[in-house]
Design a protein that fits this description.
Number of strands: 5
Strand content: 5-15%
Oligomer: single chain
Structural class: mainly alpha
Largest sheet: 3 strands, parallel
Helix content: 55-70%
Number of helices: 9
């Protein structure tokens, strides 16, 4: 995925890359490879091995390109972040099922790894980034899927902790 994403940005015109800011989670071994590529392209990118506060990263995101693990899916739904999902093919099929659910829910584009290329990723990304109405439709579909339970559970936790500290 790291190479396909960077390859996608290489294929885009400088005008298409203009003003883009990226947060690229490249994994421990991917940072050293990915970071210099963005510098050469003149793209403002923060490349990290991972992110502890994914909620903050997704809050700033217009679009996510991601694997399709259950936690990632839950976070994207909760934050209403449209995505291009590339399920890990060796995950026993659960990531593919997650990605299919997101696609059927109307909040994601699914690209299987066997179909992944920089050109395909570029087409799908441009179709979303340069069509604000389509991007908003995906966002709206995700908002319809979130039950708000994360906010409710967080509120309950804060109340419980507050009561425990006053006793």
């Amino acid at each position: 995925i790291n190479r396909a994403v960077v390859g996608m940005w290489q294929k885009m015109t400088p005008q298409a890359r203009e003003g883009v800011q990226l947060l690229h989670l490249a994994g421990l071994q991917g940072v050293a490879e990915v970071e210099p590529m963005y510098r050469r392209l003149g793209i403002q990118a923060k490349v990290l091995p991972f992110l502890h506060r994914m909620d903050l990263g997704l809050a700033a995101a217009t679009l996510a390109i991601s694997r399709a693990g259950a936690t990632a899916i839950a976070e994207m739904v909760e934050m209403a972040v449209p995505s291009i999902l590339i399920p890990y093919p060796h995950a026993g099929g659960h990531q593919l099922a997650n990605a299919q659910w997101m696609r059927e829910s109307g909040g994601a584009i699914l690209i299987e790894e066997s179909d992944l290329s920089p050109a395909r990723l570029q087409r799908e990304t441009e179709r979303l980034l340069f069509d604000p109405e389509r991007l908003e439709r995906l966002r709206s579909a995700l908002r319809g899927r979130s039950d708000g339970s994360a906010a409710r559970r967080l509120g309950e936790l804060v109340r419980r902790i507050g009561k425990a500290k006053t006793v």
